[in-house]
Every structure is written in structure tokens, then in C-alpha cells.
């Protein structure tokens, strides 16, 4: 329950309490109150409320005023001197009362005004983690996968959740980081890091005693035991599982693993063993990993599928943030509630709701002087000095560097495929890649299929029918910025040659029907530096002539 003043908001049963009295509240006012209470101390605009509560329905903003009047009557709140809901004229509302979580769980002291309110757009996922943690406190062990694309906010969600746990002295938490390149050389690396943090907790003496008794090889590997035996940790998986369960008898235990897609097989086997043991345990494991289907090795994919199939694990997949959440993120980053017109919509569209990309785009706009602070004194403001059309093609330097690092891990042939695909735009058919690279379509198709299974930049999007009746698979970049960064990394001469090859292939495919692809032909010829053919293709649209005749 969420408590503020003398009131308790029961989100599980969707009702409001004052002491032992249940206060009648219809669904819509309850939903409004719940959203305000779950986002205290910040401005909730009219648009945000309408987007969240009526996402697929047009609702007049005036309806919010009716609900606010009802809520103030129920809470005994005075609009002139508000204790709970402050109105910001023509903008929205702020829930001003202190909010805390109360209940029978040790999590009752977790304060919402900390990490949770900073975690924009992830309130639902945070509530899921809280509910799973409460189940763990009742000795129902929990294995949780936090999945999502790079930059979507998995670590931020994990940080906020851990801050809440830090407010509850009952929990002890150890966190380990899986590192790319170590998964084939050092077994149990994230597990050992997490155990080391547990050994630094207030229950360190108990942990050392339990590990020494039930998993001595693990304690020795941590360097906290004089034991010098040759028992390898992987031969004592049952021992470390039993030790963790013993620790969980005296209070809930949390293990957090980041980037599980880089974990070694031994760590995954230990996670599997922890999930399958039947003994009740106040134990919870939360692991972040790449979005489903893009994990680097089959072992993790198989583990996730199997545990979920047998209901031994929960997967929480983080999707894109809404425009409202991106607007709130920008307001926080720029320390300004009022943003330049269209900025939030532009950043949301360009970032596709990815918070890391949204931040990178904003920093890029400021670095390039497209977005500048104007005015002086107590009320400075942000202004856009360029049109959105002028800044559309820019790729933030940090993101470009990250993409370059990922590209360097690929073979030259794989880099060529991604570069050739970027010439077509956000989506690309296999035939265009084959044309750009001047190779056989069947060979290219096999390469594209293998690459899409391993690399998170692209994914399979379907099959297209070509003019001659044959079919060609096509793929899509998962983000515009990935495509733009890969496109711009190519030397101009290489790009021009490949654009020309695609145009020639397109022209041959549509021989006699060039008008169907005239604009595409013009775009590729222009990018190839052949303005004569580009102009001829465009003239062909007007005159309805074969391209050769237009030339």
C-alpha cells in the first residue's frame, strides 16, 4: 500500500483507506489518484495524464478538472492551501504529500521519493519487481530476467530497485557484472563478484561461517579462507546453492547479474540449478540481458525458454518510452519544465523512445549549438537555433563511437553486409546487399540470416516479391541511429560505388517499368555522384519515358 498523510492507497485491490475506513472511489478517479501518488513531487501535465489513462481514446482535458474536484472533496484538500494535490494553472498537477510504501513486507520502508520517481516511464516494471520481491520474502524463490535493447534502461531500473532494497535492513544484496571476453576464460566471474559484495554486508560473519561449512571451495576462491585444497567451485554447485538457501532462512537474499548474455556457461548452469531446487527460500536473482532472440550464445536462450516454460522464471521486457516520458526526461536533463516547441516530439521520434539515445541526441543538439540556452537572470530558457530538417541527419558522437566499437568486433565480410544494407535506408532487401557487394544473392542471403541471428543491429522483417516473380528476404535496422552511424562510417568513394551498383540492379529489375522506381533510381544515382542519370530518372517521371530515352 502507498501511504500519504492519514490515507493508504491499496493498489492491489484498487481502493482507498483512511484508518480502518474504506472510502468509496470510482475507477477513473482512483486511476488519476494512483498515477499522481506514484509520481510524487513532480509536475504531471494534462497531456501525460490523458496519455497514460486514456491512451487510445480522445478525452476532453476538462474531464480532469471534474475528477480533481472529487478527489479534493474525498481527501479534504484545499486548492488554495493544498496538502496533497497542487494545481499548476493550464499545465497540470503535483502531488505534494510525502509518499511511502507500507505493509507487512520488509520492503515497507522503501521510499518512493528516491529512485522510483527518477525512473521515468518504468513505474509498471518497478511495481513488478516489488511484487516479486515480496513473494521472495514469503520463501517463494524468484528468478527474473530484465530484457531489452541496449540503452533502454535495464541498469537504471536495477539501480532504482536496489536503492529501494537498501531502505530495508532485512535484505542483503550482491551484484555481479558479466564482462564480454571473460565468458570463455574465467568461470563464475559475476557470481564471485556478487558473493564478494555479500561478504561485505552487515551479515558478513554469518556468511563466512555458512560458506565455510557448506561451500568451502567458494570461500577459498574469495580469498577469505586459509583452505588451499584443489576442489574447483564448479564441482560444488550443490554446496553454494545450499549455502545461499541457508542464508535466506535468516533474511531475504538478492543476487543481481548484469549483461547475462556475456556470462560463462558455468554461471548459467548455477542459475539453472538455483531455479530448479524445490526447497522454499527467501532468494531472488535478477539478471539483465539482451533482448530475447539476440543473445550471443544458445545456452542463455535455451535456459530462458526452459525456465519460463516450466514457470521457474519471470521475464520483464523493457519497451520504448512514451513521448510523455521522453518529455519528462528532457525536462529533467535541461532543468526546465517548458521546452521549445516540437523538441520532445522530435527527440522521441529520433530516439524511438530509447532513453540513452534521447539523452545522446539532446547532448548532440547542445554540442552543435542547435539547442542553446537563451535569456538571463532568474528565468533562462532553451531555444532551437536550427530547423528540425537541418539537424535530422546528425549522429551523436558517443553513439557513433559505440557503434564503431561493435562494428570492429565483426568480420570484414559482416561489416560489408551492414554497410551495404544501410545504403537502402532503415530496411533493406537481400538483393540490394548482393548488388552493392557484387556477389551472388544466395550467398548474401545466407550471410544476412546468420548475421541477424547474432547482431542486435538488424532483424529479419519478411519476404518481398520481385518483378520477375522471385522472392527476396528483407531486413530492418532496429534503430534509425544505428543505420545512420553505419552509413556515415563508409568512405565516400565506397558509398558511391555501391549506390551505383544498386541503381543499375534496380534499373535492370524494372526494365520497361522504370517509372515505378524512378525516385529510388534518382536517389541512388545522386548518392553515387551521377547527377546526369539522377536528373534523367526524375525527368522520366514527368515525361513517362524510358530512362535511356530521358537521357
Write the layout of secondary structure elements.
Elements: E1 2-4, E2 7-10, E3 15-18, E4 21-23, H1 27-38, E5 44-45, H2 46-53, H3 62-75, E6 85-88, E7 92-95, E8 100-101, H4 115-118, H5 123-137, E9 142-148, H6 154-166, E10 172-177, H7 189-198, H8 204-214, H9 216-221, H10 237-249, E11 253-258, H11 265-276, E12 283-290, H12 298-309, E13 314-317, H13 323-334, H14 343-351, H15 355-367, E14 371-374, E15 381-384, H16 388-391, H17 397-408, H18 412-422, E16 427-429, H19 430-437, H20 441-454, E17 458-465, E18 471-477, H21 480-488, H22 492-509, H23 518-527, H24 531-543, H25 547-550
Summarize the structure.
Helix content is 48%, strand content 15%. The protein is of the alpha+beta class and 551 residues long.
Q: State the distance separating the first and last CA atoms.
A: 74 Å
Query: SS-based structural class?
Result: alpha+beta
Mean pLDDT: 84
> Compute the gyration radius: what is it?
28 Å
Oligomer: single chain
**Considering the protein shown, what is the CATH homologous superfamily of the largest domain?**
P-loop containing nucleotide triphosphate hydrolases
CATH topology of the largest domain, what is it called?
Rossmann fold
Shape: globular
SS field, number of helical segments: 25
Count of beta strands: 18
Q: What share of residues are in beta strands?
A: 15-25%
Please give the domain count.
4
**Strands of the largest sheet, in order across it?**
4-3-2-1-8
Helix content: 40-55%
Main pleated-sheet profile: 5 strands, antiparallel
CATH class categorisation of the largest domain: Alpha Beta
Amino acid at each position: 500500500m502507498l501511504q500519504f498523510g492519514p490515507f493508504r492507497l491499496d493498489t492491489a485491490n484498487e481502493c482507498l483507506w483512511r484508518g480502518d475506513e474504506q472510502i468509496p472511489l470510482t475507477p477513473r478517479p482512483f486511476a488519476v489518484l494512483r498515477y499522481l501518488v506514484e509520481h510524487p513531487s513532480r509536475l504531471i501535465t494534462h497531456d501525460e495524464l490523458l496519455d497514460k489513462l486514456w491512451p487510445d481514446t480522445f478525452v476532453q482535458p476538462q474531464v480532469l478538472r471534474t475528477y480533481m474536484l472529487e478527489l479534493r472533496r474525498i481527501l479534504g484538500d484545499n486548492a488554495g492551501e493544498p496538502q496533497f494535490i497542487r494545481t499548476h494553472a493550464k499545465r497540470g498537477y503535483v502531488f505534494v504529500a510525502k509518499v511511502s510504501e507500507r505493509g507487512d513486507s520488509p520492503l515497507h520502508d522503501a521510499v518512493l521519493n528516491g529512485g522510483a520517481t527518477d525512473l521515468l516511464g518504468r513505474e509498471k516494471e518497478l511495481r513488478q519487481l516489488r511484487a516479486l520481491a515480496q513473494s521472495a520474502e514469503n520463501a517463494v524463490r524468484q528468478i527474473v530476467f530484465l530484457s531489452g535493447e541496449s540503452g533502454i534502461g535495464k541498469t537504471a531500473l536495477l539501480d532504482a530497485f536496489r536503492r529501494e532494497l537498501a531502505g530495508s535492513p532485512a535484505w542483503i544484496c550482491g551484484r555481479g557484472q558479466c564482462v564480454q571476453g571473460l565468458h570463455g576464460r574465467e568461470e563464475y566471474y559475476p557470481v564471485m563478484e556478487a558473493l564478494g559484495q555479500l561478504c561485505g554486508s552487515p551479515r558478513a560473519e554469518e556468511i563466512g561461517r555458512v560458506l565455510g561449512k557448506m561451500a568451502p571451495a567458494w570461500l577459498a576462491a574469495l580469498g577469505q579462507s586459509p583452505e588451499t585444497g584443489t576442489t574447483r567451485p564448479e564441482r560444488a554447485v550443490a554446496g553454494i546453492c545450499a549455502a545461499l538457501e541457508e542464508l535466506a532462512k535468516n533474511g531475504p537474499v538478492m543476487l543481481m547479474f548484469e549483461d547475462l548474455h556475456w556470462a560463462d556457461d558455468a554461471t548459467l548452469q548455477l542459475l539453472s540449478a538455483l531455479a530448479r531446487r524445490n526447497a522454499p527460500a527467501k532468494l531472488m536473482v535478477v539478471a539483465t540481458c539482451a533482448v530475447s532472440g539476440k543473445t550471443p550464445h544458445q545456452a542463455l536462450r535455451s535456459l530462458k525458454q526452459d525456465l519460463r516454460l516450466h514457470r521457474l522464471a519471470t521475464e520483464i521486457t523493457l519497451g520504448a518510452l512514451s513521448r510523455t516520458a521522453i518529455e519528462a526526461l528532457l525536462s529533467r536533463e535541461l532543468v526546465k519544465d517548458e521546452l521549445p516547441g516540437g523538441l520532445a516530439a522530435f527527440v522521441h521520434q529520433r530516439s524511438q523512445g530509447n532513453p540513452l539515445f534521447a539523452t545522446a541526441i539532446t547532448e548532440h543538439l547542445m554540442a552543435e549549438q542547435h539547442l542553446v540556452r537563451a535569456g538571463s537572470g532568474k528565468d533562462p530558457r532553451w531555444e532551437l537555433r536550427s530547423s528540425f530538417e537541418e539537424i535530422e541527419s546528425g549522429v551523436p558522437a558517443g553513439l557513433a563511437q559505440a557503434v564503431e566499437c561493435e562494428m570492429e568486433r565483426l568480420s570484414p565480410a559482416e561489416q560489408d553486409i551492414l554497410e551495404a544494407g544501410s545504403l537502402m535506408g532503415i530496411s533493406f532487401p537481400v538483393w540490394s546487399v548482393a548488388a552493392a557487394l557484387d556477389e551472388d544473392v544466395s550467398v548474401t542471403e545466407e550471410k544476412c540470416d546468420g548475421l541477424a541471428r547474432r547482431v542486435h543491429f538488424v532483424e529479419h522483417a519478411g519476404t518481398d516479391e520481385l518483378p520477375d516473380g522471385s522472392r527476396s528476404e528483407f531486413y530492418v535496422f532496429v534503430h534509425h541511429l544505428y543505420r545512420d552511424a553505419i552509413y556515415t562510417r563508409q568512405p565516400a568513394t565506397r558509398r558511391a560505388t555501391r549506390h551505383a551498383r544498386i541503381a543499375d540492379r534496380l534499373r535492370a529489375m524494372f526494365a520497361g517499368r522504370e517509372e515505378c522506381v524512378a525516385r529510388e533510381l534518382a536517389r541512388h544515382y545522386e548518392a553515387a555522384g551521377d547527377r546526369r542519370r539522377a536528373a534523367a530518372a526524375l525527368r522520366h517521371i514527368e515525361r513517362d519515358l524510358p530512362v535511356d530515352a530521358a537521357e
